[in-house]
Design a protein that fits this description.
Helices cover 34% and strands 10% of the residues. The chain is an alpha/beta fold. The protein has a domain of 132 residues: Rossmann fold (3-Layer(aba) Sandwich), CATH 3.40.50. Helix 5 links the parallel strand 1 and strand 2.
Length: 229
């Protein structure tokens, strides 16, 4: 795919039934549509799915997707979701034969982490949990000055340590890792260094009670400033 034809699926104005990715027989696509112009990448992805481990992971994930709805055999079909994400994580873990789950969480969501850990344990899983501040490494270690801390001043402030979180879970031999509320960027480092597959239960959004789409949904009203450079 050339730079001129870079994928821009988010800006596609076609209806669902007119999109070639959803209706290959009669659908269309805009400039840079990866379904139409990305044949080599489509084949590369297909080759990847032929790997036994990847194939089974993708297969079970798609089965889980379908099982998230009820009345799927009714026509006309109407979307009717029936499961929250935490149940889907448990069900998918069982499908994959995972027993030991890793829970990497933010210190600001310690209460929620305790609830999540208990739920996973009640569902029969072993849980290895690790907080973001593990290691008690001062922020000065990564070059922060006193005025760049959350609480400005010379007092000790532990850095978020997603690399350590990943290493702790790697050493514990977790089968599947769940992220709960890690900061932007810190979550990226965890993804990079974790050895087991990772999914996200909830993301960090300090202002909206960890519901980042709240700002997106109101970007033309209360959060209209998001559209101003």
């Amino acid at each position: 795919m050339s730079e001129k034809g870079m994928s821009g699926c988010a800006a596609c104005t076609l209806t669902a039934r007119d999109r070639v990715c959803l209706n290959p027989a009669a659908g269309k696509g805009g400039k840079g549509c990866p379904t139409l112009v990305g044949k080599q990448l489509i084949q590369k992805a297909a080759d990847t799915y032929r790997q036994e481990e990847v194939l089974e992971f993708a297969r079970q994930a798609s089965i889980q997707e379908g099982e998230g709805y009820t009345n799927r055999d009714r026509r006309p079909f109407v979307l009717h979701p029936v499961k929250p994400r935490i149940i889907e994580i448990c069900e998918f873990s069982r499908k994959m034969g995972y027993n030991r789950l890793g829970l990497a969480f933010c210190a600001g969501l310690a209460r929620e982490a305790a609830l999540v850990e208990q739920i996973f344990q009640n569902q029969g899983f072993q849980v290895v949990s690790v907080i973001c501040k593990a290691g008690a490494v001062p922020k000065e270690t990564i070059g922060l000055s006193d005025d760049q801390k959350v609480r400005v001043g010379p007092a000790h402030e532990s850095m978020c340590n997603p690399v350590l979180q990943a290493l702790v879970l790697n050493e514990a031999g977790t089968d599947f890792n769940i992220l709960l509320g890690l900061c932007v960027g810190h979550d990226s480092l965890f993804f990079k260094y974790a050895e087991a597959p990772v999914t996200v239960l909830a993301v960090k959004d300090r202002l909206t009670g960890h519901n980042p789409l709240a700002a997106v949904y109101t970007s033309n009203t209360y959060y209209s400033r998001l559209n101003v450079p």
